[in-house]
């Protein structure tokens, strides 16, 4: 006969075993998460998820505000946990410089093994952004050479940017006072410029390939937040909603990779080493000269995707902030236009060579970058070995971010940091004095933005040529806010402009 007590005792045994196991796991976890002495201070954290849940509620889309609160409480260097991964944020210029410049050999690696999703998407190659060591040096050289050979600072690329500017100006003319979304049109323009750098040709905005690239770029930035927990908990990818988004993203990326691959194959047949026109030619030339053992078709495909990812949204978001500040500060807009009128007039387009004479415009763009912070944090870096920054231990394998936003809002470097004041960049003679070292929208150190010179040329030519032809104002009745939404880039709040011909 079945004895009831036997059944109860079996359950009790199983419960005891399970409870013991859970207890052991918790003890094991607590021991493994015991913090090494000397690391920077930071907020309390949960087992397993660390501080991941802190960025919900009032901090959703407001990572910069969360970090500002932590900086006020724990100082210029603080730590949080991304799951069980130690993450350190450097918030002031001195610590960013001490890490990324003075200890560049320790801080220039990208954290691949700490970020599962990145590891997956960069299987065909690490491109520029996710490569490290020699592979990164070669890929970066290839990217910079293609920008240089195409003529950043020479006329060819300038002509292409001006052609694209004309398309934007036409679009604004045709808008006839109707509301315009700046980011939407600038995203097309900046993506088209990357196409000319990479493939040697611009796309028509309605070309299906182009439409697909734009969609992938936009989705990549919106889906990034959704994929964040998957980096540390890859099992989450099996949750149907996340799984379907990841599959869609993967398929979209594979499609673009495929047409990049087709273009490389086609070019191999007609490659002419005496006529280097674009990134693909630079790649084939480097292969022909056996310049590097790390450069492969896969890596090149990835590097091409990187230029699209790193070069379109960043530049268009900066221009979005520029127009927002012009709407909010008509007096600054007027001064920019008066300077353009007196230096260039309205008889021709503004050239890159006019830059030194358009100091107020230049100062305005610097101020847009300082206050808008289109790219609020550096990309993640990691440490190759234990090291010390400002007296704190940064252990090997830590995720490290430079908080560029904090640096640009720091009252120790900037008088009235929250005010939009282009004059802060002008000297007594009204010229742009050398910008302070603490202005670092492109980051610093060997990992500094590889497209800085292209970005600066685009910002100047789009911004000044738009203001030469149009006055911009808000198309809504309410004054737009300046509360950004912080992802990889800092998006402006939704607003539209009205462009009135001058
Ligand atoms: C206003 C526009 C732009 C801003 C504010 C910006 C800012 C940045 C920042 C902050 C980084 C991270 C540096 C770090 O991790 O320390 C970066 C990296 C990078 N940017 Fe830009 N960027 C802009 C435009 C561009 C353009 C137009 C391109 C190329 C066409 C580009 C290509 C890259 C690449 C390839 C990297 C990775 C560099 C590396 O890992 O070595 N960026 N950018």
Can you walk through the features of this model?
One of its GO terms (cellular component) is cytoplasm. Keywords: Heme, Iron, Membrane, Metal-binding, Monooxygenase, Oxidoreductase, Transmembrane, Transmembrane helix. Belongs to the cytochrome P450 family. GO terms for molecular function: heme binding; iron ion binding; oxidoreductase activity, acting on paired donors, with incorporation or reduction of molecular oxygen, reduced flavin or flavoprotein as one donor, and incorporation of one atom of oxygen; steroid hydroxylase activity. By secondary structure, the chain is an alpha+beta fold. It has two domains: 33 residues; 450 residues, Cytochrome P450 (Cytochrome p450, Orthogonal Bundle). Helix content is 53%, strand content 8%. The chain has 16 helices and ten strands. The strands form four sheets. It has a four-stranded mixed sheet with strand order 1-2-6-3. The chain has a two-stranded antiparallel sheet with strand order 4-5. A hairpin with a 2-residue loop joins β1 and β2. α7 packs antiparallel against α8 and α12 crosses α14. It is globular. The mean pLDDT is 89. The site of protoporphyrin IX containing FE (HEM) has 26 residues, from α6, α12 and α16.
List low-confidence stretches.
Answer: none
The total of beta strands comes to: 10
CATH superfamily of the largest domain: Cytochrome P450
As a percent range, the share of helical residues equals: 40-55%
CATH second-level architecture of the largest domain: Orthogonal Bundle
**What is the makeup of the main sheet?**
4 strands, mixed
Q: How many domain units?
A: 2
The whole-angstrom Rg is 25 Å
Measure the end-to-end span. 98 Å
Q: Provide the β-strand percentage band.
A: 5-15%
